[in-house]
Specification:
two-stranded antiparallel ribbon, globular, 4 strands, 36% helix
Length: 112
Amino acid sequence: MESVEALPVDRATSDERAKDKVTQADSPMAEFMDNLHPKAFNYVHGTPGEDPNHRYAGVMAQSVERSPVGKTIVEDTPDGKQLDIRHGFGTALAALGNLNQRMRQLEGVKRK
């Protein structure tokens, strides 16, 4: 198995008291996850701020933006497409929660 590094993540407010109009997002999360294809890669030489000698794991922005949820975390920049990591991390956690909920339903386990 190859060695890969996770990309760093900044902090974002997640306190429920700071949020409004909260609803379930099961269907959009399922569509978002359908477009996540894990990859291992090296950055090409000259990519600003990235070390081409390190092996990384992640996803391609072009795949992420294929869903409406994914489009909200992909930004076009002069250096290419980039993920808004602050908001993308929360989106990824929501997708994991959705996946866990679906697995528990399949297993017949009640959610706590």
